[in-house]
Amino acid sequence: MAGEGALQFYRELPKVELHAHLNGSISTATMKKLMARKPHLDIHNDMTMINKGQKRTLEECFQMFKIIHQITDTAEDILLVTKDVIKEFAADGVKYLELRSTPRDTPAGLTKRAYVETVLEGIKQCKEEGLDIDVGFLLAIDRRGGPTAAKETVKLAEDFFCSSNELVLGLDLSGDPTVGHGKDFMEPLDKARQSGLKLALHLSEVSNTNFTVSLLF
């Protein structure tokens, strides 16, 4: 099996994706839509994508996400990204998908709660459109926000865990591994576990090697 036949075979093969960062899964096609909405930002494709064979330092990767956040700062943007990402995973044969993203307040007026609501709305709309894919959502705790922001995210996750019809599964501790210490988040993570939320922990992210360990328990 080779060429186009092999590509089609692997695309149709049922798959599970357990580690999909929402803003890290935006395709070139979707990025072009977002950039077209905000031409005043003068953001170009090479500022938001890592092409095959390219290498970036860990610092450069996080800088890239800051740029992506500039063009995904409204509910309309987040809904577009969520639906496009889910549709593209479904087209690639993924039958079960776990999205993760850090709820954030934006200069455009989007609140953390509205951010989560918008992601969940995107998931619901894809299901209503008949896409053959089941999607769960993990609220991500960004280490750079510290324990106080982590507690806010845990509270959000608890609220949606009880009201989202099992779309919110748990929490993800991620972000720049050079910032803070994992033990700083033990209190909010323990509270999350007591509430029945599952946890995914990034144990290591090494620049250039793209090595990440993520455990859901």
Automatic annotation (TrEMBL):
GO terms for biological process: adenosine catabolic process; inosine biosynthetic process; nucleotide metabolic process. Its cofactor is Zn(2+). Keywords: Hydrolase, Metal-binding, Nucleotide metabolism, Zinc. It catalyses: N(6)-methyl-AMP + H2O + H(+) = IMP + methylamine. InterPro entries: A_deaminase_dom, Ado/ade_deaminase, Metal_Hydrolase. Transmembrane segments: none annotated. It comes from the Eukaryota. The keyword Zinc applies. It comes from Xenopus laevis (African clawed frog). The gene is MGC80849. Belongs to the metallo-dependent hydrolases superfamily. Adenosine and AMP deaminases family. Residues 14-210 form the Adenosine deaminase domain. Gene3D superfamilies: Metal-dependent hydrolases (3.20.20.140). GO terms for molecular function: adenosine deaminase activity; metal ion binding. This is MGC80849 protein. The keyword Metal-binding applies.
